[in-house]
Amino acid sequence: MKTLFRGLTIVGAFFGIWFLLAQIDYITFFKIDKAKSATEKGVGDMIWDQIKKTEDIIVNDSITKTLDKLLDPLCKENGIVRDSLKVHIIQKDEVNAFALPDGHLVIYSGLIEASKNEQALIGVLGHEIAHIENDHVMKKLSKEIGFSVLMSITTGNNGSVIKEVMHTLSSTAYDRSLEKEADITSVEYMLKAKVDPAPFADFLYDMSFDKSFGGALSWISTHPESEARAKYILEYIKGKKLEKKMILSQKEWDGFKKAVNDYEN
C-alpha cells in the first residue's frame, strides 16, 4: 500500500510540476522576443544602409505620396500600422519588390512601369507586406542562414553575411507554402480594401509568359509557378463580391508611371 501511495505521489508531483512549467512564458522569460526584435531591426537597418550605398533611391515627393495613396487603404482596412512599413523605391529596370527585416519594403521602378494598372501593383505590394506581417522574412533567414549568424551581423561588420542575406531576400523564393500564404493574404487585404484582386492574378499570368523583359523579371522568376498561382487566386475569389473601387484616377496613374519613368537623380 505504501508503494502504491508513493507511486501515486510521484505521478502527482510530476504532473503538478509539468502543469506549472506549462504556465511559464518562456519567450518572455528568456527575453527571446526582445533579442529577436533587436536582431531584426539591426539586420534590416544594416542591409538597407548597404543598399543605399549601391543603388539609386527615388526621393521625389510626388512619387512617394502617390505610392502612399495606394498603400493607405490596404493598411487602414487591414489593421496594418502604416508607419511600421519603411517603403523605399529604387530606380532599377528589374521587375522586382522584396521585404527586408524590420518592415523595410523595397520596390524597383521596373515593377511600377511593368504594372498595367494599380490593382496589379497593389497585389504585389500586398504580397510583400504579407511576408512582413506574417514574419516570413525572419523565418526564411533563420532557416537558410541561421539565427545565430544573423545576430552576429549586429555585433560586427560582416560584409559577406550581409551580401548573403541581401541575395537570399531579393533573388530566392520562399517556401511554396509561405508564397501561397502571402498570395492569399494579399488577396484578403485587397478584398477588405475594396480593390479587385483579379488584375493581380492577370499580372502573374501575363508576366510568366512575357519574354520582352528577359532577365529583368526578377519578381516572377523568384516566385515560380506563376500560372498556377494565378489560377488559385482566381479560384479563391470565385463567388466573392468584388468591388471595382479605384484609388487613383487614370490620369493620376498615368502621371505616376511617367514620373517614375522620367525620374533622374
In total, the number of strands is: 3
Unreliable spans are 24-35, 213-217
**H and E string:** HHHHEEEHHHHHHHHHH
Count of helical regions = 14
What fraction of residues sit in β-strands?
5-15%
What does this structure look like?
The chain has 265 residues and is mainly alpha-helical. It has helices spanning 2-22, 26-29, 32-54, 61-76, 109-114, 118-133, 136-144, 147-153, 159-171, 176-192, 198-209, 218-221, 226-237, 250-262, and strands spanning 86-90, 97-100, 104-108. It has a three-stranded mixed sheet, with helices on both faces. Strand 2 (97-100) and strand 3 form a beta hairpin. The longest helix is centred in the N-terminal third of the chain and has 23 residues, at 32-54. Residues 24-35 and 213-217 have low confidence and may be disordered.
Keywords for this structure?
3-stranded mixed beta sheet, mainly alpha, 3 strands, 265 residues
Write the layout of secondary structure elements.
Layout (H helix, E strand, L loop, with lengths): L1 H21 L3 H4 L2 H23 L6 H16 L9 E5 L6 E4 L3 E5 H6 L3 H16 L2 H9 L2 H7 L5 H13 L4 H17 L5 H12 L8 H4 L4 H12 L12 H13 L3
Parallel strand pairs: 1-3
Antiparallel strand pairs: 2-3
